[in-house]
Amino acid sequence: MAEIVIIYTSETGMTKQYAKWISQELDSDCLILEEARAEDFLHADLIVFGAGIRGGRMRKLRSFHYKVKKSGWSGPVIYFATGGAPYDEQTVSDIIASSFHLPDGYSLPFFYFESGVNFEKMKGRSRAMMKMYKFIISVRKEKSEAAVGTRQALSKSYDHSRLDYIRPLIKEVQKMTST
User: Fold this and answer.
1) Which residues pair with 113 in a beta bridge?
2) Rg of the chain taking only CA atoms, in angstroms
3) 17 in helix, strand or coil?
4) Beta-strand relationship, 29-32 and 4-8
5) Which residues belong to any copy of the Flavodoxin domain (predicted)?
6) What is the model's pLDDT at position 103?
7) Domain chopping of the chain, boundaries
8) Would you say residue 137 has pLDDT above 60?
9) Secondary structure string (H, E, C) spanning 85-132
């Protein structure tokens, strides 16, 4: 049986919830990026890395890549990101493009899970960025339905996380480890 390790970083707990669900489904270790050591994942056949989105990019992706490269581990990685935006193909494409800077035609196993916003657990910088984003949306002349909905969504904390969102990632892990 393949050895799988889940590594995640979570500011407000929403990515942590998804990482725990994935870990339970795969009966695998679940490690916080900031605490993970090479000996915790060098034995793995596959790593699943998850992080929240900030400014359209996966948080701490460089830290993850640095830690993995420094350890000498070179196996496959499946990525997942969590954020407050509803799932749509354009959102996923934008996150991949701004996070990974891949050459044309190159793809990687990536999954996006809608989660939410938790202002109470957000650190100062993130909270300030969200308030600024909300302000920018509110002063724009163009008041699209999406902009109005985003402004309303950023008015208070919410959580749209759902266990069933992880099913495609679980299937991908099973496909990658069944050979």
Assistant:
1) 82
2) 17
3) helix
4) parallel
5) 5-133
6) 76
7) 4-118+158-177, 120-156
8) yes
9) CCCCHHHHHHHHHHHHCCCCCCCCCEEEEECEECCCCCCHHHHHHHHH
Determine what percent of the chain is predicted with pLDDT higher than 90. 53
**CATH of 4-118+158-177 given 3.90.1150.10, 3.40.30.10, 3.40.50.360, 3.50.50.60:** 3.40.50.360
> What pLDDT digit, counting tens, does each position of 11-29 carry?
888 899 999 999 999 999 9
Judge contact between 50 and 15, C-beta under 8 A: yes
Positive or negative: CA dihedral 156, 157, 162, 165: positive
Q: Give the span between the Cα atoms of 51 and 83, in whole angstroms.
A: 9
pLDDT digits (tens, 9 = 90+) for 33-74: 999 999 999 999 999 999 998 778 899 999 999 999 999 999
User: Would you say 61 and 51 are in contact if contact means Cβ atoms under 8 Å apart?
Assistant: yes
